[in-house]
Amino acid sequence: MTLETKKSVFVELGKFLKQFTENDTVRKSDVLHNDLFFDDFEKLIHLSQSHNGWYTPEQVYFAIQSWADALTEENITKWLSNYDFTGVEPKNVALILAGNIPLVGFHDFLSVLITGHNAVIKTSSNDQHLLPFLAKYIITVNPDFENKINFPEGKLENFDAVIATGSNNTSRYFEYYFKDKPSIIRKNRNSAAVLNGKETKEQLEALGEDIFRYFGLGCRNVSKIFVPKGYSFDTFFEGIFKYQDVIHYEKYANNYDYNKAVFLMSNFKLLDNGFLTLKEDPSYASPISSVFYEFYENIEDLQTRLKADAEQIQCIVSTDLIENSIPFGETQNPQLWDYADNVDTITFLLTTK
Predict the structure, then answer these.
(1) Distance in angstroms (rounded) separating the CA atoms of residues 352 and 293
(2) d(CA 223, CA 277)
(3) Minimal CA–CA distance to 56: which of 212, 189, 210?
(4) Three-class SS of residue 333?
(5) What is the pLDDT of residue 231?
(6) Do 204 and 239 touch, CB atoms closer than 8 A?
(7) In terms of C-beta density within 10 A (0-12 exposed, 13-18 middle, 19 or more buried), how is residue 163 classed?
């Protein structure tokens, strides 16, 4: 398959996904293979919560639309324009995927196939249905993909390179187990926000999206905020008030009650608005339903600190206070060229021997 052919298949997938929205799903006559896939995919979206309690229809629809927006001809062409795809020898690339948010491993899947390699995929037990369904759609659009996509049920075998995503603990296992293979091994990361007290209510509402989307389970969710000395959290709580309904979701509420009780029994000082706790803490990784915060005195010193902690941070949001930060509300809308852990997956796949 030529690169243009592969690109066209994923553009068709983007058109298919574009049909499915939370409030206005519409079957379009010009989308390929709707007769085979449309109804079943709509059913799968609503069954996803029975497979994984965190995968509510709202969250699955959001993930689907994020990929629909990404998989346009313009975006894919821009993403791939700076790479040289000549002379690639197809290899079997093992993908060990996470399952914390819907379709979290799709970028790796896309990258392997678009570079001409074969994907040997081990899905997470928390996300076993969405990606295989989309793989079937891709194969139906172009049957040449059938021999390039494999979901083995048993042990991973016969692979030449690996991309594995897990926790800090599992990464040590991955690094040992795959020590003789070219690899990308991803560990825990979290995202942070830097405030200066001048943010508008609209900006803080957008920050709420960065905190609460996917219930805070993603590495791009903000779990830590830095605020200036003397900062009043009243405006922050006013800004995120629109997300109060999150507490009505049982799994989130259980985490809120449990983590709040643990903090209080440990005599930690908390700020609490009834659906989110704030705790002063130097760590980046806060539990679900809680955000850690720290005060800073000098933005230049904070920038130095954040650079030193770069391996713990996925992304930073601010009003241009920090170099290379992104706007509030955009953490869960990465572009195709926004690589996890800032490791260029396409370069890795094109240069793997």
Answers:
(1) 41
(2) 11
(3) 212
(4) coil
(5) 97
(6) yes
(7) buried
